[in-house]
Design a protein that fits this description.
By secondary structure, the protein is an alpha/beta fold. It is globular and about 55 Å long. The strands form three sheets. A seven-stranded mixed sheet has the order 4-10-9-8-7-5-6, sandwiched between helices. A four-stranded mixed sheet has the order 1-2-3-13. Helices cover about 40% and strands about 15% of the residues. About 50% of the residues are buried. The structure holds pyridoxal-5'-phosphate (PLP). Pyridoxal-5'-phosphate (PLP) binds next to helix 4. Pyridoxal-5'-phosphate binds next to helix 4.
């Protein structure tokens, strides 16, 4: 495939945008080469500036669960835009999407909309601190909760791709309030709780991790977390920015039957527009301004275009009861096909999968936390990435990312992909 125009556009971008991109992982630093510039997308396919068609397994890093340019979402946005794009005043559609979200997700009474997953997580821990009157938080190595200061400690994903787990610019003062535990290791959490008695406001976790590849919670990890938190008056925060409205209508709370105290959303909830949200029971949400003392605000929060896109997306997912099963079946089919192809060519690997999230790690040992995820062979990943790209399949340009399956993918697309894996595996 030829990427002439993409290279030219990238060179122009580099002159005026740091690294040529507005979010680091897009820059292909983890895999080498220059990024592909997309011109348009429809359903399961991307069309780039050089006229190549690519099957898309990134899907805007999650939001496009029903495929690109999904008509009900596009129509809703276009109709709304004609009536004004922002008011900074309440609109009815904000209540409509809030009512639907509260109906779909277990265990929440109220939801506040923001503009990104980062904002959602940042606000959630402020609320947890305000509610409990405690300062420290526990996060897990390899989990990503956006780029706000408190979370840039072993943050997985983009941060890990660049080997800068702790970003300059985060002060010691902020960093000392973030304690680091290991995913799927409940003892590492209880040790931190014991060493910081009555100081911990919340434990924040990706309840199915997706930013160090896909890592499912093992055994009763989430239940044990919940019990530990309850016993120590600590709030449990589920960061469902990736998993919310993707793994089930009610996200991981529904799928694994564990209730969190605060839940964060992003990605799917905005249908491809910039939306985040956080939600909880009344008791907690009523601490938020203007009802309570914990401040949080946003000029464009609840923006009508963003709410229209999100409402159309959630409505589609709410009506179609079979969608989550269908997505899981497609993902399982891909899993089986890729396993066969990789085994055929003796490529050491582990594939992790939950619902429509799947990741391929080039290491035969079980991948269950950040350390085991980091064991994967990165040279094999780079060769795999470029091989797949050459076959017309676009996966994330980093070994630490999950692939997102969309409902727009047909079984022919999946077979095409498996066939590509088979061809590429031969060369690894
Ligand atoms: C993507 C993501 C975020 C950050 O969301 P942005 O919209 O990129 O700010 C936070 N948490 C998780 C689990 C994510 O996957």
């Amino acid at each position: 495939m030829i990427y002439k125009r993409s290279s030219t556009l990238f060179a122009a971008a580099e002159k005026v945008i740091p690294g040529g991109v507005n979010s680091p992982v897009r820059a292909f630093k983890g895999v080498g080469g220059t990024p592909i510039f997309v011109k348009e997308a429809k359903g399961a396919y991307l069309y780039d500036e050089d006229g190549n068609r690519l099957i898309d397994y990134i899907n805007s890093w999650g939001p496009m669960i029903l495929g690109h340019a999904y008509a009900p979402v596009v129509d809703a946005v276009v109709e709304k835009a004609k009536k004004g794009t922002s008011f900074g005043m309440p609109t009815e559609i904000e209540t409509k999407i809030a009512e639907l979200a509260v109906a779909m997700v277990p265990n929440i009474d109220k939801i506040r909309f923001v503009n990104s997953g980062t904002e959602a997580c940042m606000s959630a821990i402020r609320l947890a601190r305000g509610f409990t009157g405690k300062d420290k938080i526990i996060k897990f190595a390899g989990c990503y909760h956006g780029h706000s200061d408190s979370f840039l400690i072993q943050a997985g994903s983009g941060a890990s791709t660049f080997g800068t787990p702790n970003s300059p610019g985060v002060t010691q003062g902020t960093a000392k309030d973030t304690l680091l535990a290991n995913y799927n290791d409940i003892d590492s959490v209880s040790a931190l709780i014991d060493a910081n008695k009555d100081e911990i406001a919340c434990v924040i976790v990706e309840p199915v991790a997706g930013n160090m590849g896909c890592i499912p919670p093992k055994n009763d990890f989430l239940k044990a977390l919940k019990q530990l938190c309850e016993a120590n008056a600590i709030l449990l925060v589920f960061d469902e920015v990736m998993t919310g409205f993707r793994l089930a209508k009610g996200g991981v709370q529904e799928l694994y039957g564990v209730n969190a105290d605060i839940v964060c959303f992003g990605k799917v909830i905005g249908g491809g527009l910039p939306v985040g949200a956080f939600a909880a029971r009344n008791e907690i949400m009523n601490h938020l301004a203007p009802l309570g003392p914990v401040y949080q605000a946003g000029t464009l929060s609840g923006n009508p275009l963003a709410m229209a896109a999100g409402l159309a997306m959630l409505t589609a997912l709410n009506i179609d009861d079979a969608v989550f099963n269908r997505l899981a079946e497609k993902t399982e089919y891909l899993h089986k096909g890729m396993t066969k192809a990789l085994i055929n060519h003796n490529v050491a690997h582990t594939i992790n999968r939950v619902g429509s999230m799947i990741s391929v790690h080039f290491d035969e040992k079980e991948v269950y936390d950040f350390a085991t995820a980091a064991n994967g062979n990165n040279d094999t990943f780079k060769a795999f990435f470029h091989g797949m790209l050459n076959e017309g399949v676009y996966i994330a340009p980093s070994a630490f990312e999950t692939w997102f399956i969309t409902d727009a993918l047909t079984y022919e697309d999946l077979d095409f992909t498996i066939n590509a894996v088979n061809k590429v595996a031969k060369t690894l």
